Amino acid sequence: MPDKVLIVDDDPGIRTTISELIQELGYSAETASDGLAAVGLLDSGPFFCVFTDIMMPNMSGLELIQRIKAQDVSLPIIVITGYASLEIAVDAMKFGASDFISKPFKVKQIELLLNKIKREKSLIEENRRFSDTLHLHRLIDNLVGQLEDKNEEIISLQEISDRIISLKGIRDLVSAIIDVSKQLLDEVEVRFFPLNRKDNKLVDTSSGKELPAEEELLQGNIVRKHNAGDCLSDSIETIFPLMIEGQVFGALHITSSSVLGDDKEGKIQYLLNRSAERMENVALYEGLYENMLSTLNSMAKILDARDPHTSQHSTRVTTLSMAMGAALELSEEEKETLYIAASLHDIGKVGIPDNILLKPGKLTNEEFDVIKRHPDIGADILKPLPPMAKETEIIRHHHERYDGYGYPAGLKGNDIPYLSRIITLADSFDAMTSDRPYRKGMSIQDALEEIKRCKGKQFDPSLADTFINKVAGA
Ligand SMILES: [Fe+2]
C-alpha cells in the first residue's frame, strides 16, 4: 500500500495537478475542496502528509493546520500558496506547517519535499523507538533491581521471622539474635549483654563482669560510637537496646569497620523487635504454663490426700511411667508429655463423690459406672488448656484395653495413644501391688505374672514385655 497524501485546495486544477505529481512519485492521493471536508477525511488515514491551501471557503488552511495539529502533532503539513507570500508562510509555520510550496509546481520540488518528510519521519520513528527501548530497558532493569532487593529483603526478613518463631526458650533466642545478626552483617563482631536491672549494668556472660550501660541505651535508644585507634584499628560500635514490654532487657553490641547505615540498622532493629515479641510470648507462655501445671499438681495432691489408700498413687505411677520412657528411649518431648499425663492421669477423680470413691467394699455396677467416668472428667478439666492437648487425650484413654474392651471409648490396639498404653501398665501394676482396705496388695512377682497373662488382652504385648523385663522385673 502506497503512502497516502491528502491534498486540500478549493481549486480543482491544483488538486488534480498535485495529485498526478504525487502519484508519479509512488504515493496515492486523496483530495478535499476545503478545510471542513479535509477534517472529515482525516479519520480515513493514516496520511503520510497533507498539502493545503490557505485561502479556502468554510474553513481556512490556517484553521485546518490547527485542527490537524491538535489531533496529530506529527503529521507533516505543506502549505500551497498561489503566490509566494512570506507573511502567509510564516503564519502557517507558526501554526505548525512544516514547509510550503508555490506555483508553478514541479515534480522535482515535490519529490524533494516528500523525501525530506520521509527522512524526518524515519528519524523521528527511529529516535522514538530507540528512546522507547532505552526507556523500557532502564525501566525493566530498575524494576528487576528493585524486585531483587525487595525479594532479598523479604527472604531475609522471612528467615528472621522463621528463625525466631521456631525458638523455644529465651537462651535460644539470644543465640539466634547473635547468629542472625552475623548473617545480616558481614565481618562484624556481635555480642549480647543482658542488663542487670538491679544496678542497670550490662553483664558480660563470658567473664561475669559488669559493664556500664550508656544512659541513652537505658532510655531505649541506639548508641553509636566511633573508636579511633590507629588507622587500621578504627572501629564503629553500634549498640541496640533489646526492649521487652517497654523495658531494656539487654544490649546487642555490634562492632564493625564501617558505619552500618540505615538499611542494616533497620534489619537489626526488625530482628530485635521480632525477638522481643517472641520473648514476650515465651515469658508469658512459660509463666502461664508453669502456673497451670502447679495448679494441676495441687489438684492431684488434693486427690491423693482425699483417699489415704491411694495416696502417692499418682507419684508411683509417674515414676514407673518415666522408667518405661527411659527404657523405650522416648524423646525429651514425649518424656515431658508422659510425665505430665502420668502425674495427672486420675485428676478426673476429683469429680467422683466421696461415697463412691472412698467406699471400702466392693462397688455395685452403677457405682463402677460412675468411677468409669473419671478419664473423661479428667480430660474435660484439661481440655480448655491448649498446651495440654496431647496430655488431655492420653489421660482420656488411660483405661482403654488393648483388646478394645476398656473404657471410655473402647479403643483397640494401636488406636490407643502410645503413652496411654504405658500409663495403663504402670497404673495397673501399682493398683495390683497396693494394699486396699478389703484386700492386701499382690507381690511384685504375682503382679508381673498377671501382666504377662494379660498381654494382648489388657496390655500392649510389646510394652508389657518391656515393663516386665526392663522396668518392674529388672
Ligand atoms: Fe485411673
Present the secondary structure layout.
Blueprint: E1 4-8, H1 12-24, E2 28-32, H2 35-42, E3 49-53, H3 61-71, E4 77-81, H4 86-95, E5 99-102, H5 107-165, H6 170-184, E6 189-196, E7 201-203, E8 210-212, H7 215-218, E9 223-227, E10 235-244, E11 247-256, H8 261-306, H9 313-327, H10 332-343, H11 354-357, H12 365-371, H13 374-382, H14 389-396, H15 418-433, H16 444-453, H17 461-471
Parallel strand pairs: 1-2, 1-3, 3-4, 4-5
Antiparallel strand pairs: 6-7, 6-11, 7-8, 9-10, 10-11
Helix pairs in contact: 2-3, 5-6, 5-8, 6-8, 9-10, 9-15, 9-17, 10-14, 13-14, 15-16
The structure holds fe (ii) ion (FE2).
Fe (ii) ion binds at residues 345-346, 374, 398-399, 427.
Description of the molecule:
The chain is an alpha/beta fold. The chain has three domains: 4-125, 3-Layer(aba) Sandwich (Rossmann fold); 170-270, GAF domain (Beta-Lactamase, 2-Layer Sandwich); 307-471, Hypothetical protein af1432, CATH 1.10.3210.10. Helix content is 54%, strand content 13%. It contains 17 helices and eleven strands. The protein has helices spanning 12-24, 35-42, 61-71, 86-95, 107-165, 170-184, 215-218, 261-306, 313-327, 332-343, 354-357, 365-371, 374-382, 389-396, 418-433, 444-453, 461-471, and strands at 4-8, 28-32, 49-53, 77-81, 99-102, 189-196, 201-203, 210-212, 223-227, 235-244, 247-256. It has a six-stranded antiparallel β-sheet. Strands 2-1-3-4-5 form a five-stranded parallel β-sheet, sandwiched between helices. A hairpin with a 6-residue loop joins strand 7 (201-203) and strand 8. The longest helix is centred in the N-terminal third of the chain and has 59 residues, at 107-165. The protein is elongated, with a radius of gyration of 47 Å. The N and C termini lie far apart (104 Å). The site of fe (ii) ion (FE2) has 6 residues, from loops. Residues 345-346, 374, 398-399, 427 line the site of fe (ii) ion.
